[in-house]
Amino acid sequence: MCHVIVTCRSMLWTLLSIVVAFAELIAFMSADWLIGKAKPSSSEDVDNRTGGSQEPYHPTLGIYGRCTRVSHMQLSRRDTLCGPYAENFNEIASGFWQATAIFLAMGIMILCAVALVSVFTMCVQSIMKKSIFNVCGLLQGIAGLFLILGLILYPAGWGCQKAISYCGPYASAYKLGDCSLGWAFYTAIGGTVVTFICAVFSAQAEIATSSDKVQEEIEEGKNLICLL
Fold it and tell me: Which of 119, 181, 205, 211 could potentially form a cystine with 10 if both were Cys, beta carbons 3.0 to 4.6 Å apart?
């Protein structure tokens, strides 16, 4: 018989597991890892409302994508266009970024799998006498290690030609040059920290769902158990 067990600690762990998986996925897909040096506005960049020139814009560069401003041939305005600069894996600008993409992708896949499984832990807490919380916590720890490896390798690729075109000639491995870090990089770092928090907190979720109070509720014949 399936017993739906919901506790504060197990629910918090589930929510954090889902949030961190989405955060890492969004960061990985974003082009806002590096914010390039300001590009001056040309004489064609005119604000139709004020008649003045628009402010200089900052192109952004991701692991495999980029955002830049493109001009319209028939219209006196420019729009920001975002999309992948690499049509396939081999066209990613740096070998270090290729390794980063591999490690981050592996970590994110594990986190997404754990996030999916975490939803079902309210009904199924163990498989083959193994606690799902403990197994998921171990997987989150492994995912965190993959994420760390990816984030360590990423700055090593700042010396590639693609990064130099955005960040200037002084850009090199672990040196930003004229660029600055975008929100995607900080999100990936924050998500990695939360991943390890989830890995540790999974033990608390397991303790909460197997406590004496839960066992007493089960013995009383309740199928839905909600505890603070």
Answer: 205
What is the rounded distance in angstroms from the CA atom of residue 44 to the CA atom of residue 220?
76
Which residue type, as a one-letter code, is found at position 67? C
Q: What is the pTM of this model?
A: 0.84
DSSP character string of 100-113: HHHHHHHHHHHHHH
Domain boundary assignment for the chain = 4-36+90-226
Give 120-188 as a DSSP string. Answer: HTTT--EETTEEHHHHHHHHHHHHHHHHHHHHHHGGGGGGSHHHHHHH-TT-BTTB-TT-EE-HHHHHH
Kindly report the CATH class assigned to 4-36+90-226. mainly alpha
Report the alpha-carbon angle 106-108-112, nearest 5. Answer: 120
Four-residue CA torsion sign, 39, 41, 44, 49: positive
Q: Is 10:131 a contact under the CB 8 Å cutoff?
A: no
